[in-house]
Amino acid sequence: MIYREYGKTGESVSVVGFGGMRFESIDDTEACVGMMVRAAEAGVNYFDTAPGYFGTKSEQAYGAGLAELRRRGLPYYVSTKTFASNESGVRTEIEGQLERLGVDAIDFYHIWCITSLENWRERTRDGVLDVFRKLKDEGLIRHICVSSHLIGDEIRELLMEGVFEGVLFGYSPYNFSTRQKAFDAIRKHDLGCVVMNPLGGGLIPNNPDLFSFVKTRENESVVEASLRFLFAHEEITVSLVGFGNAWHVDEAISAVEGYEPISPARLEQIKAAASRSFDGICTGCGYCEGCPEEVPIPKLMDAYNQKLLHGDYQSLINRLKWHWNIPAEEAAKCIECGQCEEACTQHLDITGRLKEIVEAGTAAT
């Protein structure tokens, strides 16, 4: 296993993290625990979950798994999150989490799912930072972290608070171009960096031919290649893989064991190939930001990608609802001024796609 320092915390964590939102058999506690043990015995020591994964069942499964890791003397760090913002809400949340997880403190506790600066400012007005500081002083959490879906310049404001020790956000060979400014901020503040959806939420393994450009050798799977692409980024502390079964664990471990450094030049070749390979797929460069009507175009285009790749509008609606937490009706704000299309380096029919999103949202209601 490869280990990296988590920012300035002094904690050494595995480059592969265990994500607890994709268990195929969440009600089979024995199977879930077996997967956690399998990963820990291979050197994985970062285990991430959340209260919204299968309700609270993921945290409950983690409680059983962490107990078994302690029994076997296997080291671990536990990470979880909260949507709550005010003191009573956060305290109620964490009390339940500590009980479900069977631990005295959360190693990495995240303010969860920041999807816009307005959302972030609302939570700060509720006092979320103050309560997180109190929880750390009381020893209930060890490191204050944030989980963000912000892209481009927006994430800079979030990370300038000076309170965060680590950040969790999406990054993969599929959406790398939207995250460069996040990496710049991470380096500046020396933060721990955990990336979620390293396989595009199943997008990459389900489309191996489309993502074959990421492979650097013939005998590796597209999953192994995609994870190794991430390992080559020194800014990334942990790549958080959502494991569904034991095979997924083994494949991620294989990616680590067979890892060989990838040169910066080769990384740039992979990124260039990504842009060429995604015909009609928005690569998320972010140049369409700044809509005069405040339409969140990059997020809507990301959701539209799901329709192109999976061939159905339900995938688009699911992405909007569960990943971005925005309604399809946001696309109806478009006044067809053409500013976004002028800025689009891929010359995509953005206004046409926005109309489709509105229609898909209407049909789904």
Structure report:
- The chain is of the alpha/beta class and 365 residues long.
- It contains 14 helices and ten strands.
- The chain folds into two domains: 3-268, TIM Barrel (Alpha-Beta Barrel), CATH 3.20.20; 297-364, no CATH class.
- Helix 1 (29-41) packs parallel to helix 9.
- The termini are far apart.
- 45% of the residues are buried.
Short description:
By secondary structure, this protein is of the alpha/beta class.
Which helices and strands, and how do they pair?
Elements: E1 3-5, E2 12-14, E3 16-19, H1 29-41, E4 46-48, H2 57-72, E5 77-82, H3 87-101, E6 106-114, H4 117-125, H5 128-137, E7 141-148, H6 154-159, E8 166-170, H7 180-189, E9 192-196, H8 222-231, E10 238-242, H9 246-257, H10 264-277, H11 297-310, H12 313-324, H13 339-343, H14 350-364
Parallel strand pairs: 3-4, 3-10, 4-5, 5-6, 6-7, 7-8, 8-9, 9-10
Antiparallel strand pairs: 1-2
Order of helices and strands: EEEHEHEHEHHEHEHEHEHHHHHH
Based on the structure given, which CATH architecture of the largest domain is correct? Alpha-Beta Barrel
Described by strand count, sense and barrel closure, the largest sheet is: 8 strands, parallel, barrel
The Rg value, from CA coordinates, equals 20 Å
CATH hierarchy class name of the largest domain: Alpha Beta
What is the count of β-strands? 10
